[in-house]
Amino acid sequence: MEKVEILLGGLNCANCAGKIEEKTQKLEEVSKANLNFINRVLKFEIKDGYNKEDLIKKVIDIIDTTEPGLDIEVLDKKVSANKNYKNDLKSCGCSTGG
């Protein structure tokens, strides 16, 4: 199993962090997912037989859909799926008002 870490710069909403972790964990390709809200790092393990780059793109889409505007950085330097976002907002965009 391969492990991936993604840094979520600008993540300020614990509710959104929980949603990102839950949606990532539910992916068929993921065996385990954990989002450390304090460090703003999402870690997940890829089940054997799945394409790492395709899965990272899926997870980035989940992150961007759940909490748009984050600075997303894949900490695994071997993968070219790094997509950067700029967050000009001071609060999250979810309905909890975080």
From TrEMBL:
Record-linked CDD domains: HMA
InterPro entries per the UniProt record, alphabetical: HMA_dom, HMA_dom_sf
Gene Ontology molecular function: metal ion binding
PROSITE patterns with a match to the protein in the record: HMA_2
Pfam family name, one: HMA
Superkingdom to which the source organism belongs: Bacteria
Name of the protein this chain belongs to: Cd2+/Zn2+-exporting ATPase
Protein source organism: Peptostreptococcus russellii
